[in-house]
Specification:
Number of strands: 7
Bound molecules: S-adenosylmethionine
GO molecular function, one term: rRNA (uridine-2'-O-)-methyltransferase activity
CATH superfamily of the largest domain: Vaccinia Virus protein VP39
CATH architecture of the largest domain: 3-Layer(aba) Sandwich
GO cellular component, one term: cytoplasm
EC number: 2.1.1.166
Distance between the termini: 55 Å
Main location: cytoplasm
Shape: globular
Strand order of the largest sheet: 3-2-1-4-5-7-6
CATH topology of the largest domain: Rossmann fold
Radius of gyration: 19 Å
Helix content: 25-40%
Order of helices and strands: HHHHEHEEHEHEHEE
InterPro entries: RNA_methyltr_RlmE, RNA_MeTrfase_FtsJ_dom, rRNA-MeTfrase_E, SAM-dependent_MTases_sf
CATH class of the largest domain: Alpha Beta
Length: 240
């Protein structure tokens, strides 16, 4: 059992790491470092062998919506450094570790190079380049049960520009989902709250039975990021 004294508020405060602003380090970098060092999800990611705290976002979304099942075929767009892929590999049984359960597949793509991930097929690709979706479809070689996108362009520092960029990434991911998802499939994508996501919702509602906007606990409260989770894909076309 945990030591009550150690887990008291006083104990927690004592454990908090303070970072001094070093010469040459901007205050914003110091704040980022301090937040990283004190973030329980960063600590958990390290302890549990995930490549980043983002892994907990997809874990929490899957705890709620149960879209990653043994035997599932998953496409992960914007997968670097690989936390979501790691979660998907384990949950769809891509390594065949859950004996007697169906074995799934995980295909990840990212602009950046990704260290190999056991159980996942990973490609370096700009998903916004001409013909990118055809490449993904060829690698996939068939249907998918889940298309998920955590793609985010590097911040421009301008909120509205960042928002429009992420919506463009989401729309491109949704187009791929429309082409490859199996009947009943799931689409998950990161969006930033900011207005233009209404169109995306409209688009998704025409093809999915349910569309939810979710902010999982692992998503930082001070970030405008949230996730759209669309379940029950209608492969046949738009709903009446
Ligand atoms: C927040 S990170 C993803 C983290 C990942 N889900 C994980 O768990 O490790 C966003 C990623 O989107 C990628 N990205 C942004 N634009 C992209 C594009 N046009 N094509 C492919 N990847 C893109 C970035 O390179 C970055 O690695």
């Amino acid at each position: 059992m945990a030591d009550k004294k150690g887990s008291s508020g006083r104990g927690q405060r004592d454990l908090k790491v303070k970072v001094k602003t070093a010469r040459g380090r901007r205050l914003s970098s110091t704040r980022w470092l301090e937040r990283q060092l004190n973030d329980p999800y960063v600590k958990r990611a390290r302890a549990e062998g995930y490549r980043g705290r983002a892994a907990f976002k997809i874990l929490e979304l899957d705890e709620k919506y149960h879209f990653l099942k043994p035997g599932g075929r998953v496409v992960d767009l914007g997968c670097a450094p690989g936390g979501w892929c790691q979660v998907a590999v384990a949950r769809v049984n891509a390594l065949g570790e859950k004996k007697g359960k169906p074995v799934g597949t995980v295909l990840g793509v990212d602009l950046q190079e990704v260290e190999p991930i056991a159980g996942a097929e990973v490609h370096q690709l700009d998903f916004m380049e001409e013909g990118a979706d055809d490449k993904v479809k060829a690698w996939l070689g068939g249907k998918a049960d889940v298309v998920m996108s955590d793609m985010a362009a590097a911040s421009s520092g301008h909120k509205q520009t960042d928002h429009l960029r992420i919506i463009a990434l989401c729309e491109a991911a949704a187009e791929l989902a429309f082409d490859v998802l199996e009947e009943g499939g799931t689409f998950v994508a990161k969006v930033l709250a900011g207005g233009a996501e209404g169109e995306l919702q409209k688009l998704l509602k025409q093809r999915f039975a349910k569309v939810a906007n979710v902010k999982p606990p692992a998503s930082r409260a001070d970030s405008s990021e949230k996730f759209v989770v669309a379940t029950g894909f209608r492969a046949g076309g738009a709903a009446g």
